[in-house]
Design brief:
heterodimer, A: 411 residues, alpha/beta, QueA-like, B: 258 residues, Rossmann fold, six-stranded parallel β-sheet, globular
């Protein structure tokens, strides 16, 4: 594979390698993604927005220049921004590959870090010289202000130009909670969402604090992903439940969505709505309880993103996929091409039996427009915006949509 | 969802203000005129409010007076300020249900005919009144759509003007920018119908505000509405719209309302 070196979220020539439930591999233009969906499926994406989580600064005790990459916190609560776990790198910037970055000076408990307008203290030591918990000074509003003034998106050497925040936000990005973009969702834009909803496919989101993908240290990288907080709305859990009842597929946009959904169903296979902290690793031994298919980027074998695919398909199929990706020169990394991997029917006993759709017939009734397009219910009135606003309020002529001034001099 | 249903049903019954309780609202131009009046009124209605304005001292002053408000310093006319503003607003509120694009620029001060308007003054009016609301709405649309999917009300309110519709001499920069914002609102509202997000444009009328003072320095202020009463009218209109359209995009909830 070749690295995608330009931060274009939806390049017109992006490709999609698909593996169906029988293990068959096909190639598609990625813009045809919605063709792989079926009415009754539910597509679930991670709507976390990406924080500017790279903070350059000074290690006060030694005066050394450092880069702090925020890597996690225990909750998604907006006020809980004082404590982060972080990777600390020595001098330099993203243009140097992370694995070649010098180590930071020796970090000790109580060390002060000056990060632009922000001040942080090393809370304690963990078992790795680059990974520390930090506590920031100030109110949560002050910490947010410091982060946006001083922080830059975390980025890596394969993209030479500096990323802006908007390069890293998916179109559906909502709560700022991710440390690196949940980039599988770059595939979605608002037009695509309209297309899939009109096809009778449901769309839902959860929020999962996607963590960093590389620490520059193989020992630490082997522990990725770190624990990640998530929140699954009740409306999303309901759509998953309904999809399962009618035999539709649950399609996760990105590894973080798989991790959150499977974590929330860990206890008894039933998806719990609400908040959680995903701590598990997903791999060959994982019995998937909820997710039927995943859309993901193309990832190098050995990375946690790649290992997660082993929960979906047999090793042999993954080897075939890797060979195809190489041979067809797919582009990799966050702005690269994509894969769509359906859970194999015959991977092994781990597959939970599911209501199968009888071929040629749909197990759910043909749904009315208002049901299939639930948001259309909002449109009981013509959409001439302020007209309906004013009519609703029955205000006087002063407040009609087009308010004629009685006297032009009044302006 | 059951919880939302219960809340929403209660709203339709006796308590007319509870539509605002807990609503997460972001307001631009929040330290003066209508923006400030809206921020204070919404706070009194138990909404969670964050606002943005350019002047740090004024932002801090309003937060000192009303500590529950989240104040953000930023300039919506500046492209590079948009994402920092969006992160701070959504970060402070934990999500977003209503964005009020209220910050406005007049263009040349004092007002002059278009032929005497500097390009830079027109540009500033467009940056503040059109591009700023477009960019900020785009940056916060993910939050609004997420809110709609959870069955909450989700809307953008763009503060417009009758100058968006009528051709008043000397109001060229302002009028053209507000006309564009008005039309943008109507188009966007239609485009977002499947997402359950409303985009509204509303003329609050002539108010006794700093902006009005700049545009018509010798106006008889006794004929002008106070920003506080304009804010009340704006919120009453919005509330009626919310109650009327229910905002809950699921049949179950629809049934609960009937």
């Amino acid at each position: 594979m070749i690295a995608a070196t330009v931060p274009d979220q939806r390049p017109p020539h992006a490709r999609l390698l698909a593996i169906d439930a029988a293990g068959q591999i096909t190639h598609h233009p990625r813009s045809n993604f919605s063709d792989l969906l079926r009415a009754g499926d539910v597509v679930i994406a991670n709507d976390a927005a990406t924080l500017p989580a790279s903070l350059l600064g000074i290690h006060e005790r030694t005066g050394a220049t450092i880069e702090v990459r925020l890597a996690g916190r225990r909750s998604l609560e907006p006020q809980a921004v004082r404590c982060f776990s972080a990777i600390v790198l020595g001098e330099g910037n993203y243009l140097t590959p992370t694995e070649h970055r010098p180590s930071p000076p020796e970090l000790r408990p109580g060390d002060d870090l000056r990060l632009g307008p922000l001040h942080a203290t090393v809370v304690c030591l963990l078992d790795h010289p680059r990974l520390v918990p930090l506590r920031f000074e100030g109110s949560s509003d002050e910490i947010w202000r410091g982060l946006v003034r001083h922080g830059r998106p975390i980025q890596y050497a394969h993209i030479p130009m500096p990323l802006t925040i908007w390069d890293t936000w998916t179109p559906i990005a909502a709560l700022p909670a991710a440390y690196e973009p949940p980039s599988a969702a770059f595939i979605l834009n608002w037009s695509t969402l309209d297309v899939i909803i009109r096809r009778g496919v449901y769309f839902a989101t959860l929020t999962h604090a996607a963590g960093i993908s590389s620490t520059g240290d193989p020992v630490l990288d082997a522990r990725l992903p770190f624990d990640e907080p998530y929140r699954i709305p009740e409306s999303t859990a309901r759509l998953v439940r309904e999809a399962r009842e009618r035999g539709g597929r649950v399609i996760a946009i990105g590894t973080t969505v798989v991790r959150a959904l499977e974590h929330a169903a860990e206890i008894n296979g039933v998806l719990r709505a609400g908040k959680g902290l995903a701590t598990q690793r997903i791999g060959r031994e994982t019995k998937l309880q909820i997710v039927d298919a995943i859309v993901s980027g193309t990832h190098e074998p050995g990375t946690s993103h790649h290992e997660l695919l082993r929960a979906f398909v047999a090793n042999g199929v993954l080897e075939d996929m890797n060979a195809e990706l190489e041979e067809q020169r797919y582009r990799t990394h966050e702005f690269g091409d994509s894969i769509f991997v359906e859970r194999m029917n015959s991977k092994g006993a781990s597959v939970v039996p599911r209501n199968q759709t009888p071929s040629g017939s749909h197990p759910w009734p043909v749904l009315s427009m208002s049901y299939r397009l639930p948001h259309a219910l909002l449109r009981r009135h013509p959409v001439d915006f302020s007209g309906s606003l004013f009519r609703a309020n029955n205000l006087s002529a002063r407040a009609s949509t087009i308010r004629q001034l009685p006297d032009r001099e009044g302006r | 969802m059951a919880k939302h249903k219960a809340e929403r049903s209660a709203t339709t019954a006796a308590e007319p203000t509870s539509v605002w309780k807990g609503m997460r609202v972001a307001i631009t131009g929040g330290t003066s005129g209508l923006g400030r009046a809206l921020a204070v009124a919404l706070h009194d209605l138990e909404a969670q409010v964050a606002f943005v304005a350019r002047n740090r001292a004024r932002v801090e002053d309003l937060v000192r007076n009303t500590p529950a408000l989240h104040g953000v310093v930023g300039d919506v006319s500046s492209k590079n300020d948009i994402y920092p503003i969006a992160i701070q607003l959504v970060g402070a509120l934990g999500g977003l249900d209503l964005l009020i694009n209220n910050a406005s620029a007049l263009g040349p001060i004092p007002l002059v005919p278009l032929a005497d308007t500097n390009c830079e003054d027109l540009e500033l009016a467009l940056q503040t009144n059109l591009l700023g609301p477009f960019r900020l709405t785009k940056a916060m649309l993910g939050s609004l759509a997420a809110s709609a999917r959870e069955g909450r009300h989700a809307a953008v309110l763009n503060i417009s003007s009758d100058a968006a519709i009528n051709a008043y001499p000397n109001w060229g920069a302002y009028g053209a920018s507000k006309a564009a914002l008005h039309h943008l609102s109507k188009i966007w509202d239609q485009e977002l119908s499947l997402q359950g997000v409303r985009v509204l444009s509303l003329d609050p009328g002539d108010m006794d505000t700093p902006l009005h003072e700049l545009s018509v320095p010798d106006a008889d202020r006794s004929t002008l509405m106070s920003p506080e009463s304009a804010a009340r009218e704006v919120l009453a209109s919005l509330q009626n719209l919310f109650l009327e359209t229910a905002g809950v995009p699921h049949p179950e909830t629809q049934e609960a309302l009937q």
